[in-house]
Specification:
Blueprint (H helix, E strand, L loop, with lengths): L12 E6 L11 E3 L11 H20 L1 E6 L7 E7 L5 H18 L5 E5 L3 E6 L12 E6 L6 H20 L5 E7 L5 E8 L5 H13 L1 H5 L5 E5 L2 E6 L7
Parallel strand pairs: 1-7
Antiparallel strand pairs: 2-5, 3-4, 4-6, 5-6, 7-10, 8-9, 9-11, 10-11
Family: Belongs to the cysteine-rich repeat secretory protein family.
Subcellular location: Secreted
Pfam family, one: Stress-antifung
């Protein structure tokens, strides 16, 4: 894996380039320390945040998603959620959430809002209440460095598959869908779409459709790509994405 960022836009949008196969290491895909506010180690917010992490360790693994708010006063309340990829086993989900909370505290020390993504999970927290709102600010791309032979035809197939998965995912309780599309020859295109479950179906579909609309900007003619955000993400590859 050879990631490198480009100059950030107003939406804190980054582009990462990866090798042919996605990595399942414990290294995060990316993170943002998005809050400009700080807290001190002995403050009520710090206490609430630690309790929030403990709650997420417990709530997330059984179903793959959980959210919580800790703290009575609005100023010191810590709000957070974690989501595991739909196919990830409970033990791997738990390990990912635990690692994500540790990594955020290392990389965003004393920040009142941050988010981190792994291949298996994402974790986000903030002193601001964000549940049910589509996160349009925390976002990045990942692309396969290799090009396809017929970009026009391939791009059309990618849009066809991901659009169908957006419709399917937004209609399920898990807000998650995977699928595949047979291409010419013996090739198969694999896709995935998933939203955080604080969104309702229509919000999930809007989030996914907006992500799909960005595929041409990041991944035109590439053999694989992802648009990853704080509320949803889509991915396509020419190899299986999820666990067998």
């Amino acid at each position: 894996m050879f990631p490198f960022p480009i100059k950030p836009t107003l939406l804190n949008l980054f582009l990462l380039c990866i090798s042919f196969h996605a990595s399942h290491s414990v290294s995060p895909l990316f993170h943002f320390c998005f809050s400009h506010e700080n807290y001190t180690s002995n403050s009520p917010y710090a206490t609430n945040l630690n309790q929030l992490f403990s709650l997420l360790y417990t709530k997330v693994p059984p179903s793959g998603f959980g959210l919580a708010s800790v703290g009575k006063g609005v100023a010191d309340r810590a709000n957070g959620l974690a989501l595991c990829r739909g196919d990830v086993a409970t033990t791997n989900c738990e390990s990912c959430v635990v690692e994500a909370s540790k990594k955020l505290q290392e990389r965003c020390p004393d920040k009142k809002g941050a988010i981190v993504w792994y291949d298996y999970c994402l974790l986000k927290y903030s002193n601001e209440y964000f549940f049910g709102e589509i996160d349009t600010k925390n976002k990045f791309y990942m692309i396969n460095i290799y090009d396809v032979d017929d970009p026009t035809s391939f791009n059309s197939k990618v849009n066809e598959l991901l659009s169908s998965l957006s419709h399917e995912a937004s209609g399920t309780p898990e807000l998650y869908a995977i699928g595949e599309l047979k291409l010419e020859g013996s090739r198969t295109l694999y896709g995935l779409a998933q939203c955080t479950r604080d969104l309702l179906g229509p919000g999930c579909k809007k989030c996914l459709d907006d992500a799909i609309s960005e595929i041409p900007n990041c991944c035109d003619g590439k053999k694989g790509g992802r648009v990853v955000g704080g509320s949803c993400y889509v991915r396509y590859e020419l190899y299986p994405i999820v666990e067998a």
